[in-house]
Amino acid sequence: MWMKPVSTIVQHALKTGSVRATSTILAGEPTEPKVVTSEIPGPKSKQLIGDLDSVTQSSSVQFFADYEKSIGNYITDVDGNSYLDVFMQISSMPLGYNHPDMLEVFRNEENLKALVNRPALGSFPNEFWPQKLKDVLMSISPGLDNVMTMMCGSCSNENAYKCLFMTYRKHQRGEKIEFSDEELSSCMINKPPGAPNLSLLSFKGAFHGRTMGTLSTTHSKAIHKIDIPAFDWPIAPFPKYKYPLEEHIRENKQEDEKCLVRIEELFEEFNKKGSPVAGVIIEPIQSEGGDNEASPEFFQQLQRTSKKYGAGFLIDEVQTGGGATGKMWCHEHFNLDSPPDVMTFSKKMLTGGFYHNLDHKPSQSYRIYNTWMGDPSKLLLLEAFLKVVKKQNLLHQVNIVGDKLKSGLHECEKEFPIINSVRGRGTFLAVNVETTALRDKIVGNLKKKGVLTGGSGDQAIRFRPSLTLQEHHVDILLDRFRKVLKELK
Amino acid sequence: MWMKPVSTIVQHALKTGSVRATSTILAGEPTEPKVVTSEIPGPKSKQLIGDLDSVTQSSSVQFFADYEKSIGNYITDVDGNSYLDVFMQISSMPLGYNHPDMLEVFRNEENLKALVNRPALGSFPNEFWPQKLKDVLMSISPGLDNVMTMMCGSCSNENAYKCLFMTYRKHQRGEKIEFSDEELSSCMINKPPGAPNLSLLSFKGAFHGRTMGTLSTTHSKAIHKIDIPAFDWPIAPFPKYKYPLEEHIRENKQEDEKCLVRIEELFEEFNKKGSPVAGVIIEPIQSEGGDNEASPEFFQQLQRTSKKYGAGFLIDEVQTGGGATGKMWCHEHFNLDSPPDVMTFSKKMLTGGFYHNLDHKPSQSYRIYNTWMGDPSKLLLLEAFLKVVKKQNLLHQVNIVGDKLKSGLHECEKEFPIINSVRGRGTFLAVNVETTALRDKIVGNLKKKGVLTGGSGDQAIRFRPSLTLQEHHVDILLDRFRKVLKELK
Question: How high is the ipTM of this complex?
Answer without folding.
Answer: 0.95
